[in-house]
Amino acid sequence: MGETKNRMAWWPQPVGPARVIVPIVAADAQAADEQAKAIAATDAELVEWRADALKTWSGDAATDALTAVATAAHLREIVARPLIFTWRTAGEGGLGGADAERNYETLTGAVVDARAADLVDVEARHPSFATLIDRAHRAGVPVLGSWHDMAGTPSEQAIVAALTLMEDAGADVAKMAVMPTTQADVTRLLIATAHRAESASKPIITIAMGSAGFVSRVVGHVFGSQATFARVGPASAPGQPSLDALRGLWRMAAQAGAGATA
Questions:
Q1: Would the pTM count as exceeding 0.85?
Q2: 175 catalytic residue (yes or no)
Q3: Catalytic: 202?
Q4: Among 1, 9, 107, 261, which one has the highest count of C-beta atoms within 10 angstroms of its own C-beta?
């Protein structure tokens, strides 16, 4: 019961059939502020700051660590709901340059130590995965473990294994995103989601990106995915619907008796 009550603070009950995470994808602080204010006026349950999109990093690790902490805390105050700090590396769809990649652990760790975000995204295939999970948990910050396959869609067994690996490593939420080329790929992801959801003890998020995967963002909750992503401003990944469009689709499904609610 205690774990569930604590989780509610950073993993709120959804307004609709699944939680909606809206990204802040901004090249500078002013744009980030404007996006945060726009998101604050919506009913999105969580917000993700894609720090790798910022183009004003100095390249100095110490200076950028202070910037990451201050910006995350500032954006969290504006949006007034759980904020996820994410530094997405280039290999998993990130927007930062090669120089920025070197500070992945430093910046994520600084946000963790300062508790400037409600959750931190940690990539399962990054060398610092285990270290950052331990560091975050010692600071009392939940971890969203993530795995993005930008080249295709793994087998059902591989998807289940990746989600299991993240939970077993200590992630508080396990996220898997794939790039489908056919509807069979999307179906495979959804089936894997349903199989993993049967035994997972922590929340999972699964997404098929791009236009082929759009349906997964709308009906993933039916298969056990507990959150999806939608945009208010710029998208953080291909195929993200607008928040209004997503809510509208869920309302239509509910009115048709499909069991979804807005």
A1: yes
A2: yes
A3: no
A4: 107
